[in-house]
Amino acid sequence: xxxxxxxxxxxxxxxxxxxxxxxxxxxNGEKLGGYIVEAEAYMGKRDRxxxxxxxxxxxxxxxxYGAGGTLYIYSQRQYFFFDVACQEKDEPQGVLIRAIExxxxxxxxxxxxxxxxxxxxxxxxxxxxQALGITSRKWDxxxxxxxxxxxxxxDKSKRIPQKIVASSRVGxxxxxxxxxxxxxxxxxxxxxxxxxxxKRDFAQNNGWA
Length: 209
What we know:
Shape: globular
Largest sheet: 8 strands, antiparallel
Number of domains: 1
InterPro entries: Formyl_transferase-like_C_sf (IPR011034), MPG (IPR003180), MPG_sf (IPR036995)
Order of helices and strands: HHEEEEEHHEEHE
CATH superfamily: Methylpurine-DNA glycosylase (MPG)
Helix content: 10-25%
Keywords: DNA damage, DNA repair, Hydrolase
Protein name: Putative 3-methyladenine DNA glycosylase
Number of strands: 8
Pfam families: Pur_DNA_glyco
Structural class: alpha+beta
Family: Belongs to the DNA glycosylase MPG family.
Mean pLDDT: 97
């Protein structure tokens, strides 16, 4: 399935869940990446947690308004975040990739993370981007196929979790409990690379079937 079809013909929360277990690569001379183990859906103008809530639109969040498959890369403090727009152009929904289990180019990712290893390498959206060597918003507004990023949509490449958990999103303002508590964050149960996963909850085989 091509990116345009994948990111526009199904609900955004379903896309976020389906991305769990798919490989994410960044290939800029060397292939870096791993399996997606955590992703959050943002449901557009009605979602109080979304950057596009109530139709907010600016140069900073224009990537969200692109056609499904457009990259929305944004920054907070010194960190960068990887979001993919979903739905048709001007319907600003998206999925934030929060964590990967690293597989490809691990030595380079460790260098990019100043020696951090194990779960600390990629167990959060800012850490993941740092591990991939992303230090700017250079690829914001690019379509996936026009960037060094790739999400492998071939089902044969996908790892199957024993269980995918749906929970509330991380760090969402509780002033609107309805949206703050919606189960729009998906992750592999027991995977050590999921952000905030406690060591006592780590699963055998990292939660894969």
